[in-house]
Amino acid sequence: VNGHAFTDFVLKDQAFLLPSARWSYPELCLVLQATLADGTKVSDWTFVNRGAGLAEIDFDSNKLGFLKYKSVSLVLDATESLWDNWHGREKWQVIKKLTSESDIDSKLKYLNASVVAFGLDKPYYHHDCNDHRVLIKPGDYNPSALKKTLAEINPLGVSSLWAALAEAYRFDPEKIFVFVDSADSCSPHITAALQSEMTKSPQTQVVIFVLGDVAKQDREELQKVADITHGRLYQPDSYDSLLASWLKELSLNFEITFQDQVIRQEPLENQSFSLSAGKYLLKIPVAGQMKEFEFSVQNGSKTTIKVTGEKEEVKVEVRQGRE
After folding, report:
1. Which DSSP helix (H) or strand (E) runs through 72?
2. DSSP β-bridge partners for residue 307
3. How far is CA 297 from CA 40, 275, 276, in A?
4. Element at 302 (helix H, strand E)
5. How far apart are CA 193 and CA 206, in angstroms?
6. Predicted TM-score of the model (pTM)
7. Distance CA 128, CA 131 (A)
8. Which of 237, 216, 208, 214 is nearest to 88 (CA)?
9. Strand partners, 58
10. Does residue 310 contact residue 67 with C-beta atoms inside 8 Å?
11. Please, are residues 308 and 60 in contact by the beta-carbon 8 Å criterion?
């Protein structure tokens, strides 16, 4: 492989057997050597497989500065159930710790972030389905102020998720990040109401982080909300996973799809990876929409994708060559 010999193959019953992991290499050659009866040494070689192709994506950061989120909003669950334990911490403590992470703050302060919480002002027995409050308005984000405000909240209400979500939509953000441990207990089917909000702010994606186990019906409803807004639903199994997932969602990401399936989702940074031969779509977020660019990969080849921009328009150049 690339000039390096290996011997983890088997020749048996006229068959050539190779460990499956080897087939991911760009090129595989079989070299045959023999010594004839008169002592002459001969050799020959052939390609066994040309393996995967290499795709390299080069983003011209100097010309793509316009590719960034203009604004985001956070919707925080502050209901009574947030006192429940999640991986050794009360869920409300998890939310407070998460929003105070320096890596999170370094992104939010550039994203015109707003914050809305629900279930924080009226005890659950009042069943106040409008219990929500704007904690931070767009343009007022301050990590110290947010930390102080969250420290003063005593989760105690019902899950008035829809009221808070509708409030966040009024700020016209590109992404709404929802942190919950259940669906809306007041409006069990909020997807219908969401349709009207989507017409006012069609570019808004709703990304949902579910803390802990939820009822099947709740998860299905939350998944619908994420799906119809072209967002995502996460149910992380640890704090580190929660933090990593949110950091990735806070970054503007490109996607590579194959047969309508997302196979890569990465930040807009130079990337290099192996792909099987075939036709792919590179999707780049521009002004709240995903612009699509087609490219193909051949076995044993190198595909270079140069992404640049001019007058807030993305341009892509694809070049094929040998690895």
Report:
1. strand 72-77
2. 59, 316
3. 42, 7, 7
4. strand 301-310
5. 14
6. 0.71
7. 5
8. 237
9. 306
10. no
11. yes
Residue 22, amino acid: R
> Structure tokens of 199?
């017409």
* pLDDT of the residue at 251: 87
From the list 74, 77, 73, 87, the residue with the least C-alpha distance to 183 is 77
239-277 confidence digits (pLDDT tens): 999 999 999 899 888 999 998 888 888 888 898 888 888
CA angle centred on 153, ends 183 and 115, rounded to 5°: 60
CB 312 within 8 A of CB 322: no
Mean pLDDT rounded to a whole number for the chain: 88
Q: Which helix (H) or strand (E) holds 266?
A: strand 261-267
For 44-82, the pLDDT digits (tens) are 887 666 667 889 999 998 899 888 888 999 999 999 999
Closest CA to 140 of 124, 164, 118, 116: 116
Residue 109 DSSP code: T
- 157 DSSP 8-state letter: B
Q: Which two tokens stand for residue 205?
A: 């994606």
Residue 219 to residue 183: CA distance in whole angstroms = 7
- Maximal C-alpha separation, the chain: 99
Please give the torsion angle defined by the CA atoms of residues 173, 175, 181 and 183, in that order, rounded to the nearest 10 degrees.
Answer: 70
Residue 263 pairs in a beta bridge with none
Q: Which amino acid is at 247?
A: L
The answer to whether residues 113 and 140 touch, using CB atoms and an 8 Å cutoff, is no
- Exposure of 27 by Cβ count < 10 A (0-12 exposed, 13-18 middle, 19+ buried)? middle
